[in-house]
Amino acid sequence: MSERKRIPSPNGHWFWGHTLAFKDKPLEYCMDAREAHGDVVKFRIGFHDWILVNDPKIVWDICVKRQREFLKPKIAKRLWSKFLGEGILAADGDKWKRNQKLVRPGFHRERIEAYGKIIVDYTTMLADAWRADESGKRDIQKDMTRLTLAIVCKTLFDADFADDDNRVNSAMATLNEIMLDHIHLPLPTPRWWPSAKNRKKVAALDEIEDIVVSMIHERKVEAVDRGDLLSMLIQARDENGEQLDDKQLRDEAMTLFFAGHDTTSNALTWMWLLLSRHPEVETRLLEELESVLQGRPPTFEDLRHLPYLDMVVKESMRILPSVWVFMREPAEDVEIDGYHFPKGAFIMISPYTLGHHPELFENPERFDPERFTKENEAQLPPGAYVPFAAGNRMCIGKAFASMEARLVLATLLPAFKAGVPKDYEPELLAELSLHPKDGMPFDVRPRPQL
Q1: Are 231 and 224 in contact (CB under 8 A)?
Q2: What stretches of 209-333 adopt beta strand conformation (E)?
Q3: Which of 340, 363, 427, 447 could form a disulfide with 437 if both were Cys (CB 3.0 to 4.6 A apart)?
Q4: What DSSP string describes 405-440?
């Protein structure tokens, strides 16, 4: 039996450990800790040990080879269940297995292919708005958020919330803000607590839930498959022939509604930033798009003929992954490669710190889509690149999100030259997702048409 390895830890406060330093700048703290202490580092956050893992072999063991020994962590369940019920983000065990099987068919190829046209149609509407805005001054994060929210409303509910756009966007923004605060609360705030912030949280939840529940009731009365995810969920049956009840439908729909737009909108925001700052990559991508599309809108089928577009998306998600961290919790004490991971510890896996690891990616700060040619990608160690996690809890919407990002770029990039002002430097906020503080100002101008 190999000798147990000690897990190093930065110096922390005698009472609150690393809590305040980590909370202040979690991304920088994780990067500094990896550089100073190696690929497995322990923090004390609150009353728990948090272990950051940057060894891809251990990441792969946790997520894939020994995934049954690791659970969704209690901290994640406490966060998601208060807002999203027991959907697949918060559930574990038999409940997660059952519901995941019922939700997965909604992301099969034939369904996703049908969603492709919706993505292009809504992106074309955004293009019309950009052309009509003579100022050219846009907040591209806000535009990407509104776009991905409209797309998820249509693909999930077959609903166009144009009239309620401000209402839905405002409620979702509030949920993001309050969910972040909720992470740091020592005890959950009860629904009846009379503070202004809690009333705001409850109002936002009620706003979104009213929309979701009314859609469920309307669709069950219609009993028609509109080709959207909600129709599929209502009709789905498990191996015992049982369907999701109204609460389960609500929880899964709320989960997909929330998760289906926030991470993709931020991923797209970062893609625009990176393309605007690397004109050589943008030029090559434009050449590929022009060669394949020849001026027409893209389709789902076009994507297999656009390998450089796929490489750009993957490299963007290496440098600036919207899901900057995800977590696992050992169900029992676990030993991996000589390290002891105790039951109840929170295991942190960061696609950001992995993606910036100089032993995994040469010159990791350089934006280089060539890293993701088929040959180069095949040489990456398993566990080195996990922007959608890995194993049985890999993001169920991975294929949809990848298709959405590629179709949005393929629709807008040939028609518009977009870039940040020269003196702009985004401040990265590593919260529920990695996003720029206070949006991202962009100058958007139509490209001259040949």
Answers
A1: yes
A2: 326-330
A3: 427
A4: HHHHHHHHTTTEEEE--TT--PPEEESSSEEETT--
Residues 6+ apart with CB under 8 A from 41: 7, 8, 9, 10, 33, 34, 51, 52, 54
Do the beta carbons of residue 151 and residue 118 sit within 8 Å? yes
For tokens 């839905």, the residue is: 168
Full DSSP string of 163-176: GGHHHHHHHHHHHH
Using an 8 Å Cβ cutoff, are 19 and 44 in contact?
yes
φ, ψ (nearest 5 deg) of residue 4: -70, 135
Distances (CA, A) of 380 to 65, 110, 316, 360: 17, 30, 16, 8
Nearest to 22 by CA among 393, 388, 431, 371: 431
Give me the residue label for tokens 């009731």: 217
The residue type found at 37 is: H
Domains of the chain, earliest start first? 55-344+364-414 (1.10.630.10)
User: Residue 210: in which H helix or E strand, if any?
Assistant: helix 196-222
3-state secondary structure of 189: coil
Tell me the β-bridge partners of 71: 329
Give the Cα separation of 130 and 310 in Å (integer).
25
Binning pLDDT at 50, 70 and 90, where does residue 355 land? very high
User: How many Cβ atoms are within 10 Å of 72's Cβ, its own excluded?
Assistant: 20
User: Which residues face 442 on adjacent strands?
Assistant: 138
Q: What is the pLDDT of residues 14-41, one digit of tens each?
A: 888 898 888 889 999 999 999 999 999 9
Please tell me the distance from the alpha carbon of residue 354 to that of residue 364, in angstroms, as a whole number. Answer: 10
Q: Alpha-carbon distance 41 to 30, whole Å?
A: 9
Tell me how far apart the alpha carbons of residues 374 and 205 are, in angstroms, rounded to a whole number: 43
Tokens 């029992």, residue located: 332
What tokens appear for 48 in the block? 């728990």
Cβ atoms of 418 and 442 within 8 Å: the answer is yes
Which residue's structure tokens are 């009314």? 214
The pTM of this model reads 0.91
| One-letter identity of residue 90 | A
Query: What sign has the CA pseudo-torsion 414, 395, 227, 162?
Result: negative
Q: Quick one: which of 345, 266, 322, 304 has its CA closest to 45?
A: 345
- Spatial contact of 330 and 70, defined as CB atoms under 8 Å apart: yes
- The DSSP secondary-structure symbol of 256 reads H
pLDDT at 133 over 60: yes
Q: What is the pLDDT of residue 330?
A: 95
DSSP codes of every residue in 325-357? -EEEEESS-EEETTEEE-TTPEEEE-HHHHHT-
SS3 225: coil
Tokens of 309: 């577009």
